[in-house]
Every structure is written in C-alpha cells, then in structure tokens.
C-alpha cells in the first residue's frame, strides 16, 4: 500500500469517527461498499489482505449483524422468524455469494482465510437458521468445495472450523444435508420418515458395489482430507466434524466416508517385520496420538506407522459406535470390503513367515482394541466366512480359506507364528461374537454326537461310582457356600468316598464330584504343588466368575438354548467336533512335548473356550460324568490320556518328583534357570498341565454352580 493510500485511509477513518451516528443498516451498507470499492479501485492484486481495511470492515459487518439479532431477542423474546434489515440486506443482495467469489480466487492474497472466518462466525453466532436460505447454502456449498483441497494449506485452521460449524448446523436439522449432496440419484428423504434410514442402508449396499463419482458429498470429503493434516490439532478437529456427520441419514455420505478411509493406506504402510510383542504393547487413541522425534529414534522400526494405524482405527471404531446402528452396520460392511478383503487378506495369507506374523499380530490387535460390535462381526466374517448353521465336515475343502489357513497355522513349524495365531483366536473368543462361537464350536456340538448312545438292554443298578478311570488320583474336597460363587474354604487334598448314582441325583453332590474329578486328574505322586495346594484356587475361581459373568452379558441376545435337550438321543456316527476344537484338543494332548510358551498359549485358548456360555459346549468340555464315544475326544478324556502317558514316562525318570518341584521353583523365579536342564520340556509341561486342571475345575464349578443354583442360566 502506498503512503498516499495509507494517508487517505487514516483521513477517512477520522472523518467516519466525527460523522453523525448512522443507523445500523447505513453502517452495514457503508462497510460493504468500502469492501466492493477496493476491488474497483485497487490496482495491486498482490497486496495481502492484511494490509487493507477489508478485515476490519468484515468484522464490523459481523458485529452489526450479531448486535441486530440481540436487539430482536430483547424485543420479541426470540430471533426465530425475525429478520433485521441488515440480515435482510445480506440475504437479498447476495453478499455471501460475492464474498465467496473473492475467497475462491483468494484475491487479494489471504482473502480466502477472511471469507472462511466471516462465514464461520455468521453461521455460528447467528441463532436463527440461515442454511435453508438459497443465498446462504449455495455460497456455503462453494466454500465447502475449496476446503481440504491442499495439504498443509495456510488456511487449514479456518477450513476445519468452517466445516465443523456447517456440520453442527446440519446436525440440528438433518434434512439440510440434502443441500450438500451433488447427485440427483439420492432418495427423496422426508424429515420424519420412519423408514428413511433403512432405505438408505439398502441403497448404500447397492452403491458400495458400483463405481461412483468422487464429488458426491464434498463436506465429508473435505473433512476426510483434513484428517490427513500433519497438524494434529487440525486432524482431530476434522475427526470431530466427521463424528457429527455419521448420525445423518445419508447414504452417499456414508459411502464417501468408507471409500476414502485411510485404514487401507495405513495397513499398506506398515513394515512387514513387526514383532508381535511390540504390536501388543503399542497403544494409540485418536486425538491423543502425539509422537516426538525423540520417541521415533528410540522406538522399534515401524512404530510411527503402527500408531497412526491404531489411532485411525480407534477413530473409525468410535465413528461407527456413534452412528445410527443401521448406518453403522453398513459402514462396517464397507470397511470389510475395502480394507480387509481388498488389502489385508493377501498380506495375511502370504507365504512369507515375517509378513504372516506381522499381519496376524496387527489383526489380533485390531480385534482386541475394537469396541464396535459391527466391526467385530465383520472381522469375524472375514476370518471365518459367512454364517454357517450346518455342522462342519471332516476334511472339508470348501470352507473359507482364511479360516482354514489360520487354524492350520496353530500347528505351524514356527512356534512364534503358531503362538501369534492362537492368540488371535483367544482374543476373538474373548469378544464372544455369536458367529465366531457358532462357526468355530457350537454347530458341531448341538447334536450331542460326542455322547455314547445308551444301550437300553442293559439294566443299571445303584452301584458305587469310582473316580472315572483314574484310580490313582486324589480328589480335593470343597466346603460349599450357596450364598456365593466362591467356596468358603480353599480345596484340601483329601480322599473322597466313592459316590453312588443316587447321590449324583443331588445337584450339589454332582457338582462337587465333577469339580473334584478335574482337580484330581493329575495323580498326587505327580504333582509339584502338593505342599502348597491351597495356593491359586481362589484366584482361579474369582477370575472364572468374572469372565463367565461378562460372557453372559454379551450372549444375552443370542437366543441360545438354556439347557441341554436330553430327549435328543446321540447317534452312532463318528463324531467330529470341528477343525478348531479338534486342533485345540490335539494341541492339548501334546502338552508334555511342546515348548513352555506354546503350552501357556494353548491352555489360555482352551480356558477361554471353556468359558463360552453355551450349554452344549459346557457339557462337552466340562462334564466329566458323561460317557463319551470311544472316538470322541472330550476335554476330560484328553486330560486323562495325557496323564496315562505321563505316568509311563515319569516312571522312567529317577527322582521325578524332586525334579518337578525344582522346575516349579525355577519357573516362578525361586531357583536359578539353567540353560537346558534334563527333561525340561516334559517337566514344564507337567507344571502347565497341573495348573490348567485347577483352572478348568474353577470354570466347571462356576458354570455348573450357576446353572444348578438358578443364579443365572448358562445362557441368557
């Protein structure tokens, strides 16, 4: 600006100060004329707007409009349906449209920032609805189109605030979203149509399979682009704007949100050499994902990319949780299509061990961190296939290839990949998703094919029932307290008298006997903790009670059977428990020959398996009193077979008991760890087996006690 122009402005401002007080409309039109005169008189298009009086005049116009509305509120009690002369002038003279033209051209330089600020303040401060006015929503749409166009633009702050204000206004009146949709193919949604959401969800299902233009919902696209901003505050603000949009009944908006999601890009950017332990320990929440250069130098390779993925995953998860349930479900389906099926699947099924290991760990972390049931359902379908009601057949090659690959990898030659895949299944079972439980477990159990058919030609008498084929086992006896799930006293190793069939008719006696059978699986002479038998039981019981109670809450709506249908007679066909259950029982049967880390993970998965609140699973895994088919591999029969092998092998090892006790002390840090002690794998396997039997006994007690006492059904 020249010295003469500056002097002229100073002189004119002085004249304005001395002039008589003008009316508000006169002041408003005066300031607007001063702005338009600049474009007529100015010859320097490169002069920044900050060196002109335009910002001051725009601010004066805003102040006048806000003051005018306050006067209307004082006079009429509300500004609704009351428009003052200044606002009327702004609407009728199409002032916002003219300003938008100046802003889109960014003339003078910096004008875009000023116009965005003006529009943001106007929409945010004026209480009466402005968007329905054609001379407001048309220029607003044009401003929306220029937001998020340039990465790290100097106007990002103004852009994201403007978009968020527009979103907040639409949230108040969702019908206004139709102003921002740029396609004639949208359904005509009426404001109070009860079926609008469902119609849109159906349309979104159709749309997701077709090619589409990218300019359908620029409001969402602008916010999505701003979520990629290197400025964390801008990115978080953009995410907040998207949160306002997800509840809107608008199919194209939902489609755009999914198609432009960065999840797929984040997955592609992950290094394929991530350590599962590093993935497990990494935490990130959207809006809180600050990461310094110092941390980057100290962290493992790929931590920044992993945190970015987890942070955006948390945002998408929250986004779907906050959205309307029908739209949320449809969004999750699109996430499966665009992210899991198109990107993650090939990486997960890769033959390269490092790639498979890294992506399996990332998938496990994804399942673990997601709260939205919609996403969990879609991940389950991705892993296991669509809903399957028919029992799984042995050696069925027509199943889901992801499912088959993951189950097979639990027996992989690489212990690390096997452990990571088992951990994935443990986390999935912990989510207690209906499809996961039915697909992996219950569909092969509901026929009760694991129970031997009753030979009705044989008359049974009320004879004593011994300790289920393991005469060497000593059974701990509990003192029960019906008022609580936890027994009053810890179990004490004590020989229990033989029990009769008549006594088993008493639910309490039957429960005691079943629990004691599990506690007595490992014979006394092969136990390492006989002197400290009271340790650990109460904690196992408390953990089982908490986990089972949580599972009941999750399965309440599944409509699973409340009790085993005893009228269904088992057939004589060979029983197949399903490839997943069969794999678990086979892994458990090798507990004496597998590395310690493998055994810990296997028993952890089986424990989670046992906690699932399904009555047929409970009978199959936790009722040692059923008579299984000779070909059936139940949990109890598997443990018995392991102990038979153990007795034979232990007899060949001198001082076996002392070595076992020493191994326990070494594992808990009471003794020095030697590099490769003799019979290390076997001894560590016995310790795991011993503790696992206690854990299973606790689960059996909690589930059977809940059923027999009426505290809760095994399913709700």
TrEMBL record:
Domain FHF complex subunit HOOK-interacting protein C-terminal: 578-669
Domain of life according to the entry: Eukaryota
InterPro entries (UniProt xref): FHIP, FHIP_C, FHIP_KELAA_motif
Family: Belongs to the FHIP family.
UniProt-recorded name of the protein: FHF complex subunit HOOK-interacting protein C-terminal domain-containing protein
